[in-house]
Amino acid sequence: MTITVTLQMKVKEARYEGLEQFLQANLPNVRGFSGALNVSVYYNAEQRDLMLSEEWLSKEHHQSYIQFISENGVMSQLLSFMQDPPAITYYERAVL
Predict the structure, then answer these.
(1) How far apart are CA 32 and CA 30, in angstroms?
(2) What is the pTM of this model?
(3) Hey, which of 13, 59, 76, 91 would disulfide with 4, CB 3.0 to 4.6 Å?
């Protein structure tokens, strides 16, 4: 069963343009990582809230990706645009 992951974060004042360029350069790497099925980006300019909505084969696949970008410096680059680290939430599809 696949999982949905959300990452929510607040962008620092006047940093969205740089973040947008960073994401354009790095999203292909996320989408091509083993276990990644889909990544969508949402932004609320009034609140400076950014949300990534991702679908992965498993929580372990996503956590492997987080470990990978933590080790290679991409996570610290992403965090330079943010007020705080992202809030990461994992969801399983409810069978109703």
Answers:
(1) 5
(2) 0.91
(3) 91
| Long-range contacts (CB closer than 8 Å, 24 or more residues apart) made by 14-22 | 15/81, 16/43, 16/45, 16/48, 16/81, 18/81, 19/50, 19/81, 22/77, 22/78, 22/81
Q: How confident is the model at residue 62 (pLDDT cuts 50, 70, 90)?
A: very high
Q: Which residue has the tokens 């939430």?
A: 89
Q: What angle do CA 8, 31, 24 make, to 5 degrees?
A: 70
Q: How far apart are CA 40 and CA 54, in angstroms?
A: 6
Cα distance between residue 33 and residue 65, in whole Å: 7
| Length in residues, the chain | 96
Instruction: Name 36's bridge partners.
Output: 56
Structure confidence by residue, pLDDT tens digits, 11-38: 999 999 999 999 999 999 999 999 999 9
